[in-house]
Every structure is written in C-alpha cells, then in structure tokens.
Specification:
Order of helices and strands: HEEHEHEHEEHEHEHEHEHEHEEEEEH
Strand order of the largest sheet: 1-12-6-5-4-2-3
Radius of gyration: 21 Å
Structural class: alpha/beta
Distance between the termini: 33 Å
Strand content: 15-25%
CATH architecture of the largest domain: 3-Layer(aba) Sandwich
Number of domains: 3
Number of strands: 16
Number of helices: 11
Bound molecules: beta-D-galactofuranose
CATH superfamily of the largest domain: Response regulator
Largest sheet: 7 strands, parallel
CATH class of the largest domain: Alpha Beta
Oligomer: single chain
CATH topology of the largest domain: Rossmann fold
C-alpha cells in the first residue's frame, strides 16, 4: 500500500502519555537533550485501530535480531501483539537469526514491498547508513528499537534502553553489595553479549568504568552471544582456566547466566546469595527473576523489551504529520532479594531496587 502521511487527528490516542515497565522503576537517564523518557502507557489507546483516514491498513516491515533469548521472544511478541491485523496493521516480520547480511536484505525487501514503515532492531550498531539512505530515498520512515545504530541518524526515532546505565547500575550495586558482605577484593569474569551489539558495548563500558574506578580485577571477558549455549561454553572454559580465582561472574543476559549456572554446577562451583560466586545478570525476564527468587542470581538488571506501544505512538505521530521525539527511553528496574538490596547511586542519582516476589515475577514479561 502506498504510504501516506495524513493530517488525521489521533488526539485520543496521542493525549495519553506512556510509562514502560511496571511503574515506579528507575527512569533511565536520557543523555541527549531532546530525549524524552517514555511516559504513561496508552493502555487501551494502543489498541485503537491505526487505519489511516482512508481506512487503509498500515503496512510495517520488522527486521528482528533473531530468537536467541527470552528477552527477544518478549520483544517479538510485543510487536506482533500491537501491530496486528485487528489493530489495523499488516506486519511483515523477518527473524534475521543474528545474521547482519540477512537483516540488510530484509530491509531492502521491505523497500521493494513499499511498506509504510520499517522497524529495525539492529544486530550490530554499524553498517547501516547505505541502506537507511535507500529507505529515505524511497520515502519510508524507519523506527529503530532496542539496540542502537551508531553510523547513521537517518531514522525517525529510536525506542530503547540506556545500556551503559545498565552496566553502571550493575557495577555500583556490586560495589555496595561487596561492602555489605565484607568482600574487599573483586576478581570478575564477564560473559558478554553479541560482539558489536550496542547492548554489549554499553553494558561492558558501564561495568568496566566502575571496575576501573574501584580497582577490581576483570580476569577475562568473552562473548556468549546472548545465548544459553554460549554462556555455558564460556563458563566451562572459565571454570578450567580460572579455577578458584574468581568470585564474581557477570552475564550480559539471563540466557547466558542460565548456561553459566549449568557449567558452574558441573564444576562444583557455588554461586548466588549463598554461594562462593556473586552471579550478576541482565534482562530480568520472568525466568531470570525466578533464579533471583531461588537465590541463584545475586541480582538482575532489567532491559525492558516491551517497546511496541511506544513505537506505535511514533507511527501515530508520523501519520498525523507530526515529528516524534528522536529518542524514547524505556524505564528499567534493578531486581534482588532483600539480602541483596542495597543503597547505591548512578552519577549521584539514588537508585531504587525492586524486591523479587511472586507477584513481581507474575507481572514480568
Ligand atoms: C538488549 C537486547 C539484548 C538482550 C538479550 O536490549 O538487545 O539482546 O539483553 C538479547 O537478551 O539477545
């Protein structure tokens, strides 16, 4: 369908602000001046029919990273639920299976299909300017979600998280928790995410900044590619190479941490609130919070996957001829059990930790 930018008033769906997550979390610092933290979620309004004035369906091409984690599953479901046929959309979804070449090809196919909008969650943050120029030349607005594109700004908006803040939160929490536990020396092993993904870059950068400031030993950092198999393979290697030398393991997503648990179990290494090793994870998916509740994860730092309602607001703004905020930051929460809830700040901003209860787990994604 030819895309149209319409002067259709969508005030009813625009007036309501939006709030990501369960509410009351740590609003992510928005580094850019024009960044606007996401506000109150438009609840029912997000389900309002999105047809344009002609009643035509709005076509969307979505090039998703892959299916590598629980987080990814929730991200995909969020988009499929919001951009459904009953909501007035025609969603062309491509799972790019962590293959950057396939992702670029998917975007070019969307251009050929002349969709109204293209959504991209970029596997890696570079190599995008050429294809985004092709989208611009075709008059197709691009909305980036989750991970960032660092070599081009030819997109209408980005909706996601501040990954460096997540890394800083994990580091500042570890400092406070180690002090509470009377741990004076940190010897950490890091299982990082997909190399070159902005989530990996930001979490590594944030945690390393605290490690450098505190004089911690980062014994090694290897990629687990955000998968459970990857986390297990790296942790098996670590258990051999650094046996008895580490007291912290940082996994850059829950699925890597699940794999690391298996490897440490097999190697007889104890972890979690009652073990020898502090185990830190990111994402805070439902299964991850269950590990926190079981005292196996020491803490879990959320990255909110439910971007679609905020993307829909961007599309509605564009449909009505408006200009969306260039950056929309999702709220994040930092999760632990009471034994591991400590006071800490990020760049002087006091942080709130959320206790993991059965209700919190039931409400997660
Ligand atoms: C982060 C997202 C990452 C998650 C992983 O925003 O891109 O990719 O942390 C996922 O679970 O694989």
């Amino acid at each position: 369908m030819k895309k149209k930018v319409l002067g259709v008033l969508l005030a009813a769906t625009m007036a309501v602000g939006m709030l990501a997550g369960c509410g009351g979390g740590n609003a992510t610092e928005a580094p850019a001046d024009d960044a606007a933290p996401a506000e109150e979620a438009p609840a029912d309004e997000a389900e309002a029919p999105a047809d344009d004035a002609a009643g035509d369906v709005i076509s969307i091409g979505f090039a998703q990273v892959g299916h590598e984690s629980d987080w990814r599953t929730a991200s995909t479901k969020s988009c499929q639920d919001v951009f459904s046929a009953e909501n007035g959309y025609d969603l062309s979804f491509v799972d790019c299976d962590n293959d950057s070449a396939a992702q670029l090809e998917a975007v070019r196919n969307f251009i050929q299909q002349d969709v109204d909008y293209i959504i991209i969650d970029p596997i890696v943050s570079t190599g995008w300017d050429t294809v985004l120029t092709e989208c611009e030349d075709a008059g197709i607005p691009v909305i980036v979600i989750d991970r960032t594109i660092d070599d081009s700004d030819k997109y209408a908006a980005w909706v996601g998280s501040n990954f460096k803040t997540e890394g800083l939160a994990a580091g500042e929490w570890l400092k406070a928790y180690a002090e509470k536990q009377g741990i004076s020396e940190i010897n950490a092993l890091v299982i990082s995410g997909t190399t070159g993904a902005s989530a990996q870059i930001g979490r590594s950068e944030g945690f390393q900044e605290i490690a450098d400031r505190e004089g911690w030993n980062i014994l090694d950092e290897q990629t687990g590619d955000f998968t459970e198999d990857g986390g297990q393979a790296v942790m098996e290697s670590y258990c051999k190479s650094y046996a008895g030398k580490f007291n912290v393991v940082v996994c850059q997503n829950d699925n890597e941490a699940f794999g690391a648990m298996t490897a440490m179990d097999n190697a007889g290494v104890t972890y979690g609130l009652d073990g020898d090793v502090i185990l830190i994870s990111f994402d805070a998916c439902t299964a991850g919070l269950e590990k926190v509740k079981a005292r196996q994860f020491s803490a879990d730092f959320e990255c909110n996957p439910l971007a679609a309602p905020f993307v829909e607001e961007v599309i509605q703004t564009l449909q009505s001829g408006g200009t969306p905020d260039k950056e929309v930051y999702m709220e994040e929460h930092w999760f632990a059990l009471p034994d591991a809830i400590v006071d800490f700040s990020i760049d002087g901003a006091a942080q709130t930790m959320t206790e993991v209860t059965d209700d919190v787990i039931a409400a997660q994604y």
